[in-house]
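Q: Got a minute? One more chain.
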Amino acid sequence: MSGMDGGRPARSGEHPGPDRGADGAPAGAPEQEVPPLPAPVLELVREPVRAPASLRPTVMRRVRDAAGTGGSVVVGDGGRGEDRVALRVVERLARAAAERVPGVALVVGRAHVDAEQGPGGLVRVHLDVTVERGATITELAEAVRRAVRRDLRAGASVPVGAVDVAVVDVRVDGPTDGA
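A: Always. Here it is, folded:
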């Protein structure tokens, strides 16, 4: 407590001082005790929560996808068994392919691969990229699509239906086409 405030709480709009909290109470003073919960709230707390059975697979798929460890795509069934490639492998291959395209400065975050394969087993890939200043975005996006399709087909036999390229930033401190 400073000698200037006379031990009073700070007024509205006034800084309470270095040894006082925002409420004017001495800094380090114990906080007020929280009142007990009302009876109806306690009853709800004790009641078991039942989620629909159909919700569990959806939640678990999303958790696995978020962790980057779940999901895979079917890349072939030669009659002797199914071949699968983990989504994280598809993501890494797509990211590496995009980053090798001249004009792409960075692939932001992880590449996103839809877990659901569409008609014919085709996979949809989504990439967020940062481009170099001076790059022609439409040409660059098409070059990224070609590179991702080529590398996924050659490296993992992944059938790609679509490659969505979102340009989310431009790097202005790097080289330009004219330099």
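A: The CA atoms of residues 98 and 144 lie 5 Å apart.
Q: Perfect, thanks.
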